[in-house]
Specification:
290 residues, alpha/beta, 5-stranded parallel beta sheet
């Protein structure tokens, strides 16, 4: 992913970022911008989700005074705000179908017309789009224009879910902990780290950050324990339900298996870091594999 982003950054090609919600698509878009020749120009985000036809068109293209009820003054659109820089269309799959043809025309010609205006304006921006939806399926269902799909799909980049990159979880959690509590000198217990490795993270990196932020607040000492990193689940009515209990032997087995696979040093060094003998480490790894 990083290689593809780096290859695409210093060019004018349109990039389509694909992946589940919370995988860091906006960070990837900012990476593209900050490593491009447009880095000193604006980076403008358009949140496409939940916008009606009129609001979307007005936000993107701007409008002139009197264009519609409530348009009491001229308004500069986000396209004009992104002049010379990068325009990031987030949740592209939510753009109203009736507005997609206007977006296609903008991409192909670089020209647009503010709502209520007869004047065509030229735009200069680099386009980056992102979605967590299956656009090909939407095209088949008639919910997304096929010509627009192929126009924005010049350079697709898939951002993997956090559960697909287990070896990154501990590194990310520790980096977030350092960023969010650098003055507290906190660290994770082995049980807390083991839980993070075992958890599936349906909310991806965003959910991991939320868990770390909560743990910093609720932990009572210098060490974040399992009870701090793993909040109780709530009933629909707001009550607390019993937390799922994961046997410690399973937590240890999963943690050691993942750690042994990703640790860059020797097994002897790893055993020393874990505070056990090398023989004990091999015995535990062998038991976990059986």
């Amino acid at each position: 992913m990083l290689l593809e982003l780096t290859q695409a950054a210093d060019s004018e090609i349109s990039v389509l970022l694909l992946g589940e919600s919370g995988t860091g698509k906006e960070l990837a878009a900012r990476f593209l911008h900050e490593n491009s020749s447009r880095r000193h120009k604006p980076f403008v985000t358009v949140e496409c989700s939940g916008l009606s036809d009129t609001i979307f068109e007005s936000e993107l293209f701007g409008h002139v005074k009197g264009a519609f009820t409530g348009a009491i003054a001229n308004k500069l659109g986000l396209i004009a705000s992104a002049e010379g820089g990068t325009l990031f269309l987030d949740e592209l799959g939510d753009i109203p179908l009736s507005q997609q043809v206007k977006l296609l025309r903008l991409i192909e010609t670089g020209m647009y017309r503010p709502v209520g205006s007869v004047e065509l304006r030229y735009s200069d921006f680099r386009l980056v789009c992102a979605t967590n939806k299956h656009l090909e399926q939407m095209v088949t269902a008639g919910k997304f224009r096929e010509d627009l799909y192929y126009r924005i799909n010049s350079f697709p980049v898939y951002l993997p879910a956090l559960r697909e990159r287990k070896s990154d979880i501990v590194l990310l959690a520790k980096a977030m902990l350092l960023e969010l509590s650098s003055d507290l000198l906190l660290h994770f217990s082995e049980e807390a780290l083991a839980f993070l490795l075992h958890y599936q993270f349906p909310g991806n990196i965003r959910e991991l950050r939320n868990l770390v932020e909560r743990a910093i607040i609720v932990c009572s000492g210098s060490r974040i324990e399992l009870k701090d990193i793993r909040p109780p689940k709530l009933r629909a009515g707001g009550g607390i339900v019993e937390q799922e209990v994961i046997p410690l032997c399973d937590l240890e087995k999963n943690y050691l298996a993942t750690l042994a696979e990703s640790y860059p040093g020797s097994k002897s060094e790893l055993a020393s870091r874990l505070g056990v003998s090398e023989r004990t480490l091999y015995r535990k790894l062998k038991a976990g594999a059986e």
